[in-house]
Design brief:
By secondary structure, the chain is an alpha/beta fold. It contains seven helices and ten strands. The protein has a six-stranded mixed sheet with strand order 6-7-8-3-9-10, sandwiched between helices. A four-stranded antiparallel sheet has the order 2-1-4-5, with helices on one face. Strand 4 and strand 5 form a beta hairpin. The radius of gyration is 17 Å and the shape is globular. Bound molecules: adenosine-5'-diphosphate (2 copies). Keywords: ATP-binding, Nucleotide-binding, Transport.
Length: about 220
């Protein structure tokens, strides 16, 4: 079965239709890229998949379950399996929290925090994304953009996701560190069998990284 199915998705902002009848499906372990000009509805599609914006019409199915039909309470265990990584490495981390608290937060919120084993789990997650465990005590402003993006990926992994929704995850990074973060994402995908919905407008990256590419324009799929 599919990991993710989007059927006839429609999302409006007031009178403006940002996503206008988009359909696609993604298999476990597959990377599907969304490409297209600024404003064509890529991010809005991502927000709808994450259920951070409820669609006006259409369906979003995760592992065959229709998310749009569920209440917030029913969504909670499924949300864990669909994790976002956003573009702004600093903006997506809480500036006042130490890195270890940011990575531990999903475990605590989800009732999975064990004081005996939690700290080692955080260390393991930081090492998994290529960060020295000594970074645990730092705050975001003490890290580079690339390092912050790795923290964001570690936090996503803490939830044990099946699908990552990556909205321009390397676009805000220094070009010299983009390849390192992309290689990390490729390793995680291969090791953990994660599916990726990957928003990216860098053709070279898309071609290298994605199994399939969907082109959008004015809220619709063009190819
Ligand atoms: P993309 O990610 O492809 O750049 P978006 O999904 O961000 O496109 O935007 C699609 C359309 O929706 C654009 O016309 C944009 O201006 C509009 N839009 C996006 N977010 C909002 C918002 N919060 N309020 C109103 N309009 C928005
Ligand atoms: P890198 O390429 O090393 O991953 P960046 O090129 O994003 O990191 O940033 C270079 C330096 O500028 C880093 O040391 C980082 O601390 C700092 N920096 C970049 N963006 C920000 C920001 N939005 N807020 C604070 N510091 C920043």
């Amino acid at each position: 079965g599919y990991l993710l199915e989007v059927r006839d998705l429609v999302v409006r902002y007031g009178a403006a239709t940002a996503v206008d009848g988009v359909s696609f499906a993604l298999s476990p372990g597959e990377t599907l890229a969304l490409d297209g000009p600024s404003g064509c509805g890529k991010s809005t599609t991502a927000l709808a998949v994450l259920q951070l914006r409820r669609p006006d019409a259409g369906e979003v199915l995760f592992e065959g379950r229709e998310l749009t039909a569920l209440s917030e309470r029913e969504l909670r265990p499924l949300r864990r399996r669909v994790q976002p990584v956003f573009q702004d490495p600093y903006g997506s981390l809480s500036p006042r929290h130490r890195i270890r608290d940011t990575v531990a937060e999903p475990l605590k919120v989800q009732g999975r925090w064990n004081p005996d084993t939690g700290p080692a789990k955080v260390t393991e997650l930081l090492e998994r994304v290529g960060l020295d465990p000594s970074y645990a005590a730092r705050r975001p402003h003490e890290l580079s953009g690339g390092q912050c993006q790795r923290v964001g990926i570690a936090r996503a992994l803490a939830s044990e996701p099946r699908l990552l929704v990556l909205d321009e995850p390397v676009s805000a990074l220094d070009p010299s560190v983009r390849a390192g973060v992309l290689n990390l994402l490729a390793d995680l995908r291969d090791e953990l069998g994660l599916g990726y919905l990957f928003i990216c407008h860098d053709r070279a990256v898309v071609r290298h990284f994605a199994d399939r590419v969907i082109e959008m324009r004015d809220g619709r799929i063009t190819s």
